[in-house]
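Appendix B. Chain record.
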Amino acid sequence: MLRFNLLLAGAVLTFTVLTGTAAAHTEVTHMVPAASSSVAAPKTVTLDLSEPVNLRFSTFKVYALPAGSDAAALSKAKLNLKYDSAERADLFPGASGLAARVQIPLRAGLKPGAYVVMWHLLSDDGHPVSGQSVFRIK
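Structure tokens predicted for this chain:
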């Protein structure tokens, strides 16, 4: 009986570890410039992800955040737009392949103010993940 209980406990632990790992969604683990930071105009925004994502099914954009605007609402309105490159602060052409680090080139001469980095990507488990982060240019 003790042997059966140990086998059952081992099976439950293995199942928990495997399903816990498989159910995790991709996250942005580090970003430069950091969220809420105030920096001199950067040349790129870099996002490190918790796992590689297929860039073909991912979107990354940077927009100026108008005063009094909400970053989440702006992201929701702009993430799925096509042909919006003239409005954006970034020059990211899109990409393909797998990557756990994404570098987004920014336009030269960005004015002081708040900027929203927004992303929509497909986790390894098939779930879409969206988010945004705000930084300021001095």
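Further analysis of this model is presented in Appendix C.
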